[in-house]
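Can't attach files on this board, so I'm pasting raw text. These are the components:
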Amino acid sequence: MTEQGVRWSADQVLALAPDAASRKAGSKLGAAGPWSEAGSSDEGTVWGLCKGSGSKPYRTVIDIADSTGPAYKCSCPSRKFPCKHALGLLLLWAGEDGAVPRGEAPDWAEEWIEGRRKRADDKRAAGASGSPSPGDPEAARRRAERRAEWITAGATELEQRLADLLRGGLASAEQSGYGLWEETAARMVDAQAPGLAARVRELGAIPSSGPGWPVRLLEECALLHLLDQGWLRRDGLPDGLAATVRSRIGLPASADGAPVRDRWLVLAQYDTADSRLTTRRIWLHGTGTGRTVLLLSYGAAGRAPELALPVGLALDAEVSAYPGAGQSRVALGERFAPAEPTGFRPPGVDVARAVAGYGEALRDDPWLESRPVTLERVVPVPDGDGWQLADADGESALPLTPAAGSRAGLWRLVALSGGAPVTVFGECGHLGFSPLTAWPDGPGEAVTLC
Amino acid sequence: MTTALLGTARRAPADVPAGRDAPTALLDAAAVETVRRRAGMRAGRAAARLEPAAPDPRPALPPAAARRLTMLLADRPGAGGGRRGTAPDLMELLPQWLAAANGHGYAAPPQALPALLDAARGRTDLRPAVLAFAGPRALWLARLNTDWRFALRAAPGGGAALPGPEEPERVRELWEEGLFAERVALLSALRARDAAAARDLLATTWAAERAEDRLMFLDSLRAGLCEADEPFLEAALADRSRNVRSTAAELLSSLPGSALAGRMAERAGACVAVDHTYGAPTIVVEAPHECDAGMERDGVVAKAPAGRGERSWWLGQLVEAAPLGTWPGRLGGRTPEEIVALPVADDWRDELHAAWCRAAVRQRDPSWSRALLGTPAAPEAGGPGAVSLAERAKLLSTLEAPERAEWVAGFISVHGLSEAFQLLGVCTVPWAGPLGGAVVDALNIARDAGSYPWSFSGVMGLAERCLDPAEAVRLEALTAVPDEPEDAAPGAGGYWSESFQRLLTTLRLRATMQSELTPP
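---
Top answer:
Structure tokens for the assembled complex are below.
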């Protein structure tokens, strides 16, 4: 592990920021001025004193090598996490040669690191010695059964509502508006089927989504019907599909797949937010296994989830899959080394192959909206109001999703390409392709588009 | 689909399997169809491809500089805000960064172009540097996104090369059919390369142009003004529009050899003379008694603004337009310094000196500017006198950079900072050693005087951008929070320390930025 090897890029550091204001404040502190006694160690610790408005400087320590992602400690009163001082220190460390020299950690930094590492070791030891008490298995089974009954009742009720809708005609859905769907969604929440509730809520938005809405509404109703039927007849389904149905309904599952150790390249990280929750999606690509997997993490509305993995880093870690056929979601297990920048790029396919891949994935999970894929040698081309990605060496093209067409990342993609082929990672689905990360044709770092 | 839209109650679906009611059967069929459609999706046909962007042969940025650019661009206005604290204002450093990067001739990283163009969209002053740095690919992008249209406007001819003098046909076509903005761009571009061709082009349609267009076109002759323009300008003195006439007169008076300058010299000379009857030689002024048709034709405005005497108003205009070179001969072979030092009879001094100042600025005459500025330590240099601060700043701009810096340094060390902002604005960046030293000393004095730093926020901001990073060493000592003297404004010491710290941080950052951009 050389010093050059572990240094991150400014983009990667800024990706850790919880919000735009922190990003800005951190950028300002990413210069030598306010810092003194800054240093770093071979074990992946960075520390420094930051002069603030008070008489005593703030003490900032960051542990990059921690197995659960970078950990921060700062004596400032900010409740943001990481605070601007931690971001600034990391930027300083990432940016300037010699600004953060190698050295011995001062006592105050060493103390915290030792404490952390010890706690982590204790936890690991505890985890290995015995799993947390499983509780009463009989009671757990009864609870699960009761919940299944509620869901069955909910699914049956939903089937009735869908049938009523079709009997009366979709045209009436335009008048009934959100209210009807909100009420139905609330019923599904009561039935403890959050997956159904979310789908129902989305139905409410379709009648106002522009031309062609009846077809989209019928499709979504049909898929909802399919999910209901899947649940009601889950006993007759193959195991994998039954697990998929359970996860789509919204039943909690634990990632009990066999752990897979690999060097995982971080392909993309992006957040989506609704009124209650911020959801962070991180796509990883196994450089050895060739698998592309998804990490999900959540934060309260308006706050960034804690797990942050900057694009372009690779981490040596174990992941375990969640159950269900055609599911790419995994949980991150043990991490064996701090994340390091890598020049590795995922191998890509052409447009036709990417589209076919989504079609095949529907066999395992008919509710799948999109599938991760890397497109190789494609060119962004304007097409009417939107954009498409066209094979550089063929005549096939894939439209970008309408949402992707209005993001700032689109222009970074277009600028990066300049009319020449690029490699693009993104999600390919029935709405089109949503680009997340791109690489130039020649040498060059990954450029995030989301 | 129709069935679904109308409802199975109104229209029965075609084939309902036994044991299923109609709506359920319809949903079954729709589910199959939906999954089939999604699974059977094919790639579409590619639309017409874009012409690739022109290659940018410039070398790529060093990695550290590319990271710095990302950070500078992350600091966009609107995010955060509030009190500035000790952190540097990164957006204010972007112009310098761009100038340095352009100086080294680096190519912009393509993925940074959207952010650069967005930054330039909001700040017109950034545009030339951003567009130079962004290179051909930015123009390629601007053609695809209407938000960035300004890039095409700023680039001459909307990105397509303007016709040069070697293509007279295209020049003529664009001149006769182009939009006003295109025509102005064409005229300025042509003027820069072939002054005479531009003037001749303008003359072809001059009589038919609208008055406000004539004014703009005439203004573009200011660049590369030469003796050969005189006949054209002389003709414009008879223009229908008064604004055009006065612009033509102003341009002619900047040509000391022009007939108009000669006429003005004669008129002005008749009004000003040296009189020895007072004992010491004294300048006496006899302002003109009337504004005749000839004067009006030469651009003198006959009607004085409210509150000014007509005669002094006319005198001011005559002296301003007369070539400064005629005065030594007219006033007994004296140098400008000697002339400025002469006493002036009957309170005409302010009027006369002010007119000479305007003349020195218009004719860009350093020796007269120097004489009129006087020594920076002179008591009247600080206060409102014959020569206002704005005029001093203009006079300074006619001097060479080192002389300018030295004068301002002298001014600050005597008069302090409160009046210096405008003068500092005309000094070249980074500030020369003595000037930087004078500013830092003056800030230090201001702090000891116990006032708040925001009284000096303008100068502080300038210092952050303009002070030589080498001064950072001298600033170290100032960042400490001093003990508060009794008569000081409460808390000022802490704010001063914060301000100095920001200054220091910014200087260090600027030094780092420069070294990052230096090729390895």
